[in-house]
Design a protein that fits this description.
Blueprint (H helix, E strand, L loop, with lengths): L8 E5 L4 E5 L3 E6 L7 E3 L10 E6 L7 E4 L6 E7 L2 E8 L7 E21 L2 H4 L4 E5 L2 E6 L2 E6 L5 E3 L2 E9 L3 E10 L10 H16 L9 H13 L1 E2 L4 E2 L22 E2 L3 H9 L4 H15 L9 E2 L10 E2 L13 E2 L10 H15 L8 H15 L18 H21 L5 H18 L1 E2 L4 E2 L26 H14 E2 L2 E2 L19 E2 H13 L3 H12 L11 E3 L4 E3 L5 H14 L10 H4 L5
Antiparallel strand pairs: 1-2, 2-3, 3-4, 3-5, 5-9, 6-7, 7-8, 8-9, 9-14, 9-15, 10-11, 11-12, 12-15, 13-14, 16-17, 18-19, 20-21, 22-23, 24-25, 26-27, 27-28
Helix pairs in contact: 3-13, 4-5, 4-6, 4-13, 5-6, 6-7, 6-8, 7-8, 8-9, 11-12, 11-13, 12-13
């Protein structure tokens, strides 16, 4: 049975892809060989017929308890049942030759009867493989994919599914290893299960021990960073926005999107989190991915790319899947990749400036790329766009987009001033002033004392909270304080912040229905309250956000304040990055995004 809630899942991964393991011991989502590959277990978006792999005591429901082994991505689920106690250990060793999922059943006490059910369905539940028994397991093959299951347990097939029942005693271990390979290559080398778990634990502990954060929320920050690392596609350094597609922003609704790609929107925030906690190698890899991805014609800059920089991400609907809790359509690909979003130019320029200021090794192409982006920005900053929220309605003059255009030009000015690189600084200064004046004239509602979502809008936008954070205005400016107050009043739902009101201005995003509170935006609210001097209130918001983490520390994209459940794709990198940055900022450790550092720090003048 598929989990009732998004937060019932925990992530395991190998830095190429990830699997979601439910409280009931079932892996209901796994794409192979990469995050954005077709799923071989897709029960998450349908039911068990779409593919899953469950190991649990016979007749048992959800595990009695579960946890990650300390500072690792090894999941341990335990059941207390009649007859004894049993543990299932799940992990994916960091990728070498092939993708492996290791599951070890360990008896803790007594004698427990276990059941394994394996239903492989390639291509998102659409393709039934040909399965044959092999020495010590089974082999499943269809088209380009082969899966090998190795175990000492006797297996049998029934209704195109593989089963096993066995008993485990105290101190006994029963391993299962599922290995993926392309169907045209020879079988990968056999993995020793116990050794693989040990090596996986060593990898994660060694990695997280680089963390330089020392503060009140040490455990929370370290766990968030582990998830962020787990969402990294190691071959390129790209960080996927989430491990899933089409988990709904409204249960039963149509706002279901594929997040298994890399968003430029996340660049600066991610670099802040990595640089600010000591992960220089990851920050450099992300910066290099960024430079490669955006290289080319600036007019064709996209808001997102594939894990390897792929530009074509055609969107299609999988009509054979019923969706999570009936939320359809299930989508793969994302047509928002073709939108014009002005803000990404500023976000890329800001991120590269941050990396340069942080002293990352020089990327020789970076300044040439920035110059090209600036040339395009100079001629197009005054055009309407789709905003960072990828609206599917009419393009408008979104205030945040203009502010980020200003930020991009501002970073260029500071780069020439501080680093001696070549550029038309006088022209850029004039352009910066022109954008600033345009935003303050057309994007501010003097009657309400707040900036608005777009020019002439009656609605608000959580992204307005970033105006002082990027240095556009100081925290002490009355317009900033008024905007923070207005956004908090208008967009808060039970203490959590919406991105915007979908029904404002006659329906700004062109989609039916609504969505949950956006967790990254609520982290921004905590930052903004600190920025205007309301630190106690800021910490209350942050602690409220931390309370939403599931039992193993994961956060998805959104939160349903009415039904008290997670919404959206999971685990969400943007949420994890927000957690890390807000913890650092509330502790007084902020990586600034601009040379105008006096206005960047959280002090009330």
């Amino acid at each position: 049975m598929v989990a009732d809630k998004i937060e019932d899942y925990a992530l395991i991964g190998d830095l190429h892809t990830g699997a979601l393991v439910g409280r009931d011991g079932s892996i209901d989502w796994l794409c192979l060989p990469r995050f954005d590959s077709p799923a071989c277990f897709a029960a998450l978006l349908d039911d068990e017929s779409a593919g899953h792999w469950r190991i649990a005591p016979v007749g048992a429901g959800n595990s009695t308890r579960r946890r990650y082994r300390e500072d690792t991505l090894i999941m341990e689920s335990e059941w207390d049942v009649d007859g004894g106690q049993v543990r299932v250990i799940d992990c994916m060793p960091p990728r070498r030759e092939a993708a492996d999922v290791v599951r070890i059943v360990e008896g803790i006490s007594g004698r427990v009867r276990m059941k394994m059910q394996l239903r492989i369905r390639f291509d998102y539940g659409h393709v039934v493989p040909w399965v044959r028994h092999d020495n010590g397991g089974v082999v499943a093959i269809a088209g380009p994919d082969t899966l090998y299951l190795t175990t000492p347990v006797e297996l049998h097939g029934e209704h195109m599914e593989t089963f096993a029942e066995f008993e485990v005693e105290a101190g006994q271990k029963v391993p299962f290893v599922l290995t993926h390979a392309s169907s045209h290559v020879k079988r990968p080398k056999h993995l020793h299960p116990d050794r693989a778990v040990t090596e996986t634990a060593d990898f994660w502990r060694e990695w997280i021990n680089q963390c330089t954060y020392r503060g009140k929320w040490n455990e929370e920050v370290r766990r968030a960073l582990i998830f962020l690392k787990a969402l990294t596609y190691q071959p390129t350094g790209g960080i996927t926005a989430a491990a899933t597609t089409s988990l709904p922003e409204q249960l039963g609704g149509v706002r279901n999107w594929d997040y298994r790609y890399c968003w430029l929107r996340d660049a600066t925030f991610t670099l802040q989190a990595l640089l600010g906690t000591g992960f220089i190698e990851e920050a450099q890899a992300w910066r290099e991915w960024l430079v490669r991805a955006v290289a080319g014609d600036p007019a064709k800059l996209q808001i997102m790319y594939g894990l390897d920089g792929t530009r074509r991400l055609p969107e299609q609907e999988l009509d054979w899947l019923s969706g999570f809790h009936g939320s359809t359509p299930v989508r793969i690909g994302n047509e928002a990749a073709g939108q014009f979003q002005l803000d990404v130019y500023g976000e890329v320029l800001d991120g590269l400036h941050l990396a340069r200021n942080a002293g990352l090794p020089v990327e020789h192409n970076a300044w040439d790329v920035q110059r090209a982006l600036l040339d395009f920005l100079e001629g197009h900053w005054d055009q309407p766009d789709a905003s960072l929220w990828e609206i599917r309605g009419e393009n408008r003059h979104f205030v945040h987009s203009k502010v980020m255009a200003w930020a991009g030009v501002d970073r260029a000015v500071h780069t020439v001033e501080s680093h001696g690189l070549d550029g038309p600084i006088d022209r850029w200064r004039k352009l910066r002033d022109r954008i600033h004046e345009d935003v303050c004239t057309n994007g501010f509602d003097a009657e309400r004392g707040t900036f608005t979502q777009f020019y002439g809008s009656k609605g608000l936008d959580a992204a307005l909270l970033l105006i002082p954070r990027v240095g556009f205005l100081p925290w002490s400016d009355k317009r900033v304080i008024g905007t923070v107050d207005a956004v908090q009043k208008d967009l808060c739902e039970d203490g959590f912040l919406m991105r915007y009101r979908p029904d404002a201005d006659g329906g700004v995003d062109g989609l039916p229905g609504t969505e949950g509170a956006f967790l990254a935006c609520t982290f921004w609210l905590a930052d903004a309250l600190a920025g205007i001097g309301r630190t106690d209130e800021s910490q209350e918001v942050f602690e409220r956000l931390l309370s939403l983490r599931n039992d193993v520390g994961m956060l998805s994209e959104e939160y349903d304040t009415k039904n008290k459940v997670h919404l959206g794709n999971t685990p969400q990198a943007f949420s994890m990055v927000g957690l890390v940055n807000t913890a650092r900022q509330l502790g007084g450790s902020l990586t600034t995004t601009s040379a105008t550092s006096e206005d960047q720090n959280f002090h009330s003048d």
